[in-house]
Design brief:
367 residues, mainly alpha, Leucine-rich Repeat Variant, 0% strand
Length: 367
Amino acid sequence: MYPWSPLPRNAGAALRDASDTKSHVRLSAIADLARLGRGEGGEACVARLIELVERDADVEVRASAALALADAEAPSALPALLSAASWGPPRLRQMALVAIGELAPAGDDAAVAAVRSALQSDAPALRFQALVAAGRLLTPAELAPCVESALSDPQSKVRYIACRVLEERILDGAADETTLPVWQAALERLLADVEEDVRLAAALLLARRGSKAARDLIVGALNRRRSFSQPEDEQAAIELCAELRLDAARPGLRARAFGGAFSGSSPLAFQARVALARLGDARACRYILRGLSSWSRTTRAQCVVAAGLARLEQARPRLLEMRRRGGELERKSAGEALLALDRRIIAPGCGRDPALTKAVETQGDGY
């Protein structure tokens, strides 16, 4: 029997259910209001979301509506969100800060004031969300003292997100030669942090800058063969091992790439096989080369991408054949892989997403 799945609501149904007496019905209508609010004539849906933020009796409904206003791409909601961020319950303030960071234009005075106020909050969850929003609203120069303070925050999750904001807004091109040593010293202190997530976040930034301690920490974490609590960091660590030729990480990469008798496959098996192939691992290279002739279209497609990412010159004859004789999509992907081989570059799509994902930003009370 197939499970029943409700159809998306139309505007009338969404607006009606958003006024239901039951909070779980109002909650279920919010996603439809956000979707409809992005479309033509969505003003009524946006207005209803604003009303929920301002007046609903259920804090979770108000918080979900605040986040939905960001999904609805509704800058007209900023006054209501700024009020919620200043005076609402903590859960609502968190989600309002997320929405403000996504909706407010960079440098907006009212939004920046709300974020700066939340950065001084006694509540770690508010400091966390405020730092994410600050990363979007402030210039690198304005952001630097906020990040510097957050790197020594008493809450580990704030220290972790500070590393991510530092990476994406300051170190990736904005830092100059005079400030880099200061940031490096701050990150080196975090290599001894009590929380592994923070140690790894700092290590991922320092490893490319020649820190042996950071590289050893990453290799050790991978070779323990258990998943990282932050999947993005695990993927970044796998790819960094290939980039920096960290052969000592091969045991952990093999465990992820191929599993074992008593372990299942890793969600990052593809990335681990590519990394091993770039390190010259014979088994990983054979796996990718065999997969180029697999009966499974999915496997062939994955191995075409892997051959390009791993720069497998041995794959060139098969890729040339696929470009001549394959279907339209196969010809295109084989051509892209051949281009990667010719240019000796990593094909697009490999690496950490530069945007701070909403999954990281909106983890509720655990932020």
